[in-house]
Amino acid sequence: MLDVAIVTGLYLAIYDIGSALGNTVAGAMWQQIIPDELARRTGNSTLARAVYKDPFKFATDYPVGTVERDAVVQTYLHLQRLLCITGICLSVLLIAFSLVIRNPKLGKEQSLEYAEELANMPGSETPAAGKQSIWAWLRK
Amino acid sequence: MQSEFLYTVLVVAFDESIKSATRITTLYSFSSTITGLIVGSIVFKVGRLKPFIVAGTCLFVVAFGLLINYRGESGASSNSGMIGAQICLGIAGGMFPYPAQASIQAATKHERKCTKSLLKVRNPS
Q1: How far apart are CA B115 and CA B38, in angstroms?
Q2: Contact yes or no for B43/B49 (Cβ under 8 A)
Q3: Is residue B104 part of a domain?
Q4: For chain B, what is the domain count?
């Protein structure tokens, strides 16, 4: 039998593990793509290393409009695009998972009547899932 | 949520000032908290969680679409596009994790003996 505090702790722990995984993916992409792409676009490996080391110093040294800055801007926008494409692909998975959860009516009590008892779930004894309309999950 | 990377991209690629870059990176936690409050009071009346969770995950995709579409070229439209995407991401972040947590808690039996309360202070990132 689970307890609300344990379940909440577990949920938040998994939430943080998920954010750490996301940060890992983004960090790995940043580290793998940015240095090579900077060197390729600026054509100057010394400058590329300096930009990778301290992008903020570079941003003040080279205002928008200079050739070097434009190359770096294009590099960052390229990576931003790749990161967001990764994000959108993972979000589609999230929609799929959100569509398969149950939708019980919440009452005044803290827990549902049939909490942790799958057999007592309303609707679990009627296997008429095939006949339900597309919006059945809203009314369930 | 993606503040460390976002801040660098905003300063270097979008040519934002430190002030506006900081504001844009904190938009996510700002709008997700406000959305969480509003969604919470609506759920209290409606008594359903799944529609909000599904809408939240769909909004995530919309926000990422905005982020892909408006990613710079240092124009005024890309700046407001980025702000809109961050707010959209924040609304999604308020509509999905909090109801998911409530849904998990509702499906758990409440033990009278164990009156442990769990308080988690998450650093706003």
Answers
A1: 28
A2: yes
A3: no
A4: 1
Residue B92's domain comprises 3-98
Interface test with B, best of A56, A77, A114 (most B CBs within 10 A): A77
| Residue B121 falls inside a structural domain | no
In tens, the pLDDT along B61-93 reads: 999 998 888 766 655 667 788 889 999 999 999
**B51 belongs to a structural domain:** yes
- The question of ipTM being above 0.85 is answered as no
In sequence order, the 6+-apart residues with CB closer than 8 A to the CB of A136 are none
Residues in chain A: 140
CB distance from B90 to chain A under 8 Å? no
Q: What pTM, to 2 d.p., does this model score?
A: 0.78
* Position B117 in a domain: no
- Interchain CB distance below 8 Å, B5 and A83: yes
Torsion, Cα B19 B22 B24 B29, to 10 degrees, reads: -140
The Cα of B87 is separated from the nearest Cα of chain A by a number of Å equal to 15
Kindly tell me the burial class for residue B33, based on how many C-beta atoms sit within 10 Å of its own C-beta (0-12, 13-18, 19 or more): middle
Q: CA of A33: how far to CAs of A25, A26, A77, B43, in Å? A: 12, 11, 12, 43
CA–chain centroid gap for B120, Å, is 18
Q: pLDDT tens digits for A57-94?
A: 888 888 888 888 888 888 888 888 898 899 899 889 98
Say whether residue B13 is in contact with chain A using an 8 A CB cutoff.
yes
The amino acid at residue B82 is M
